[in-house]
């Protein structure tokens, strides 16, 4: 739809006899809506320019709806193709400027700068079968096991070096042996069994069980005192950490950078077809397939062609490689519709770019619009237009698990499966030992 001329005075940098032809494609938050009711911060910025130029205009979308990249034969598609073929006077874009694009079109001064990030479905807190092992790291668990084996070996050695009591097994209330040496018939099987497993007091102390007897002399007492102190500290720390993890559970973030994304295989990823991301990743693959971007291109899923499919695609379990501006916008839009954050964005960024408008090579309109862009940036209009499109985004920009929920997550059955599995294994082991003792009798 063309807006009629307000002033017929000829201007050398404007087309004569027709309206200004403007190329654009819908990709929020830059441009959204349908012709002629477009919205977005690029449209608001361009409306200011059109009002200053006082000229009619018509918006044209490329048939494929893409920014544009180069075919192997050298031709271009999308908005870049329209500029290359001089079918339009200006393309709003906004475009990330590359050497290949500069060869076929001119670009305005940078309007804004951003980087790219990975947009993905926000992970939720889920029951963890091995959650009871998480209070300690693997190194700490290995240290506890090694210490326990060392203490047990020392206790067994001290037991072997200690003299065998020659008095009766009867003890008075002070724990001292009294009376004459016992006969063979007076020794019970229970006391014999207790002496046999006396060196396992280290396990009992670590598990909080009672240690009824201790043999091995003074060395065993010193060793037992040190181990009881260590066991007490480990039990307190373990219990405290486990309680904290249940009260304030942590969410496992699958990745937080591009490098981590391409190094995993649980979450597939995609990118916008005909975008600067595609150009960079494809070039990186041709130069070094094992680079981060090269692996990103090699492991990609089918490319995305329509911005309307971003949220359904990401919620379907696929990560998206888009500009931080676009990703932040879609996070805020989804939050406004559902009332909670369903999307997340990596804090680690990559491929910083500056966005500009595009012109055919040698266009005199470039210098005029450069001056207007400068003035709008000085007055803060561009920042104002961008901030307007980024409402309801700050809350969802918090890392997953730190949104500040006021309600605690109710524990599910899966939260107890690990502990009860361990308990069941202990019961089965005890039954096996009990059955073996019965068979011995």
Describe the structure.
With 441 residues, this protein is α/β, with parallel strands linked by helices. Helix content is 43%, strand content 13%. It has 15 helices and 11 strands. Strands 1, 4, 5, 6, 7, 8, 9, 10 and 11 form a 9-stranded mixed beta sheet that branches. A two-stranded antiparallel ribbon has the order 2-3. Helix 1 packs antiparallel against helix 14, helix 4 runs antiparallel to helix 7 and helix 9 packs across helix 10.
Elements, N to C (H/E): EEEHEHEHEEHHHHHEHHHEHEEHHH
Give the overall silhouette: elongated
The biggest sheet, with number of strands, parallel, antiparallel or mixed sense and barrel status, is:
9 strands, mixed
Structural class: alpha/beta
- Measured as a percent range, the helix fraction is 40-55%
**Quick one: how many beta strands?**
11
Kindly estimate the percentage of residues that lie in beta strands according to DSSP.
Answer: 5-15%
What's the alpha carbon Rg, rounded to whole Å? 36 Å
Q: How many distinct helices? A: 15
Q: In terms of per-residue confidence, which ranges show pLDDT below 50 for 5 or more consecutive residues?
A: 1-9, 166-170, 180-196
Roughly how many Å apart are the termini? 99 Å
Return the average pLDDT rounded to an integer: 81
State the gist of this model.
The chain has about 450 residues and is of the alpha/beta class. Helices cover about 45% and strands about 15% of the residues.
What is the topological layout?
Layout: E1 20-23, E2 32-34, E3 37-39, H1 41-53, E4 57-60, H2 78-84, E5 90-96, H3 99-102, E6 105-107, E7 112-121, H4 138-161, H5 189-196, H6 201-206, H7 217-247, H8 258-262, E8 269-271, H9 276-287, H10 292-298, H11 310-315, E9 319-323, H12 324-338, E10 343-345, E11 350-360, H13 365-378, H14 381-389, H15 414-440
Parallel strand pairs: 1-4, 1-5, 8-9
Antiparallel strand pairs: 2-3, 5-11, 6-11, 7-9, 7-10, 7-11
């Amino acid at each position: 739809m063309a807006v009629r001329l307000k002033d017929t005075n000829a201007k050398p940098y404007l087309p004569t006899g027709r309206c200004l032809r403007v190329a654009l494609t819908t990709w929020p938050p830059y441009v959204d809506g349908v012709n002629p009711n477009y919205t977005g911060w690029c449209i608001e910025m361009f409306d200011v320019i059109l009002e200053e130029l006082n000229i009619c205009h018509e918006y044209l979308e490329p048939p494929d709806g893409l920014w544009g990249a180069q075919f192997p034969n050298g031709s271009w598609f999308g908005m870049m193709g329209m500029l290359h073929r001089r079918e339009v006077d200006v393309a709003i874009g906004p475009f990330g400027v590359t050497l290949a694009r500069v060869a076929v079109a001119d670009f305005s001064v940078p309007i804004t700068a951003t980087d790219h990030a990975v947009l993905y479905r926000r992970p939720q807190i889920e029951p963890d079968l091995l959650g009871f092992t998480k209070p300690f790291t693997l190194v700490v668990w290995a240290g506890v096991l090694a210490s326990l084996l060392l203490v047990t070996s020392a206790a067994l050695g001290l037991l072997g070096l200690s003299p065998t009591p020659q008095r009766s097994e009867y003890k008075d209330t002070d724990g001292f042996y009294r009376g004459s040496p016992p006969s063979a018939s007076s020794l019970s099987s229970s006391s014999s069994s207790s002496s046999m497993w006396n060196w396992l007091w280290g396990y009992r102390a670590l598990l909080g069980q009672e240690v009824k007897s201790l043999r091995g002399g003074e060395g065993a007492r010193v060793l037992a005192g040190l181990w009881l102190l260590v066991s007490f500290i480990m039990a307190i720390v373990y219990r405290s950490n486990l309680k904290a993890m249940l009260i304030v559970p942590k969410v496992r973030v699958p990745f937080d950078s591009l490098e981590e994304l391409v190094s995993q295989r649980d979450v597939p990823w995609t990118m916008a077809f005909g975008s600067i991301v595609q150009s960079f990743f494809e070039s990186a693959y041709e130069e070094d397939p094992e680079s981060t971007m090269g692996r990103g291109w090699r492991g990609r899923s089918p490319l995305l062609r329509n911005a309307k499919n971003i949220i359904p695609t990401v919620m379907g379990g696929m990560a998206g490689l888009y500009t931080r501006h676009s990703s932040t916008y879609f996070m805020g839009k989804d939050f406004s519709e559902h009332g909670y954050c369903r999307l997340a964005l990596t804090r680690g960024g990559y491929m910083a770019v500056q966005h500009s408008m595009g012109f055919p090579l040698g266009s005199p309109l470039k210098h005029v619009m450069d001056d207007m862009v400068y003035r709008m940036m000085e007055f803060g209009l561009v920042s104002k237009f961008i901030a307007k499109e980024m409402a309801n985004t700050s809350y969802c920009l918090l890392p997953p698990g730190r949104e500040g929920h006021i309600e605690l997550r109710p524990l599910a059955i899966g939260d107890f499966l690990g502990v009860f599995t361990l308990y069941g294994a202990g019961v089965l082991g005890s039954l096996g030992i009990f059955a073996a003792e019965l068979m011995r009798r």
